[in-house]
Fold:
Amino acid sequence: MRDHKTPRLTVDGVIVEKGKILLVRRNIEPFKGYWVFPGGHVEYGERVEDALKREMKEELGISVMIRKLIGVYSDPKRDPRGHTVTIAFLLERTGGEIQIDWEASEYKFFPLDRLPRKIGFDHRKIIRDTRTILKEE
Structure:
């Protein structure tokens, strides 16, 4: 078998409460200081749904339920570290109070019509797709 590169698989969690969307300010590169969705890499042998629940627990200290698939985002340039493919899910918080870990310096719920200027990765596109889904509900 020839050696070949494959993209890394990641997950992103979108939480909307009372018309506001949750973003965290990254405390690490890439996009340090930018606002992004909480999420992370899927571990080998892990289902993406389980990875997302694990990441929400690790990064935010909360339990979540998956409401809906938002989309799959695979632009090879979406992450400056290399080709990643992310699966973004709309979530509902089911337990816990938000307590950020070392990867983020703060969190905030932003009104969908007043987003921060500095949004990392391709998360602005994910926000647009989330708006479309919310309008359809």
In short: Residues 8-136 form a domain with the Nucleoside Triphosphate Pyrophosphohydrolase fold (CATH 3.90.79.10). The first strand starts at residue 8 and ends at 17. The chain has a mean pLDDT of 96. Residues 123-136 form the longest helix (14 residues).
